[in-house]
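Morning F.,

Quick status update on the modeling queue. The single chain you submitted on Monday has been processed. Sequence for confirmation:
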Amino acid sequence: MPWSNQSGGGGPWRPHGQGPWGQGPSGGNGGRQPPDFDDMLRRLQARFGGFFGGGGEGFSGKAILFFVLLGVLAWLATGLYTVQPKEVGLNLVFGRYVGTVGPGLNVNWPYPIGSYIKVQVLGTNTMEIGVPGSSVAARTPRPSDEGLMLTGDDNIVDIDFSVQWQVDPSRPDYYAFNIEDPEGTIRAVAESVMRQVIGKRNIQAILTTDREPIQQEVKSSMQEILDSYKAGVQIQIVNLLKDAPPPEVTAAFQDVQAASIDAETLQNQARTYESKVVPEARGEASKITQAAEAYRARTVAEAKGAASRFDQVYAEFKNAPDVTRERMYLETMERVFGGMDKIILDQGTGQGGSPVLPFLPLGDLQRHSGQGAPK
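Structure tokens below.
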């Protein structure tokens, strides 16, 4: 060997006793000698010479078998892959889906028999629709009028909204295989459903009271459509970011809003007046009704009492008609003349007598004496 130690000369790279690195065997480098490549080659040849074949005769059968086994192992290793914690793996055999595996180290048939697809099933994806400057799948600029939608009362409203969704953990194969462009499909469904929902409502309700119902209706309708597509997508949240009239009609719409607020204020004032006047009117009506009922009860009772007295008088009249008649006459005269001044003329006076009977007004005297008495 050219690097072997030769007696006397030290080989062609070792003039005057130097080693191949230009130093003496015991000089410099702390007294350590460089590796002896000749000795290393001899040892490798002695160990594997029988396996690979020696003496320049080429590879032996064992060497060929070794490389074949090494190639087989490398080929089988193509069936090993790792799935991250937020992902699932979809195993394919000759392009056909055969099963789902969870996170960790997984095994499938080696390439090209088997292959796999990783799908992220944990975590939320957010998609904005109608927002200026955003993009479709981060690639295509969105049109400026994407958020303009027609309402049920033939007005135009500018709607910006976002959709939060995730892959259905129970059916990741639907998401991977059933639709070619999942994000584009979700965007198209979201915009279509939002236009349908907005088209059924008036602009006033859209801008004031119907935000939450709109979000819930869009979410449920989107989920129903995507389920019919077997898209393997779960819609989590639909959030209205902006609902406003187009900039061209904002001033006019603000005037309409102010008029609506004034109308609502007047309506509230009218309701307040109504809540005050109506109870008072009902109380007055109840008072009149109760007075009428009391008058009716009193009148009926008096009529029944008069009828009862008449019945009693009539019963007495039948027993003694003359006496009863005379008594009724005297009582009637007493009621008629009891409260007036009276002049009594005696028609039965004798001859030469005065037709006028002197009468002393005792009643007037009593009244005058009563008024003049000290109090």
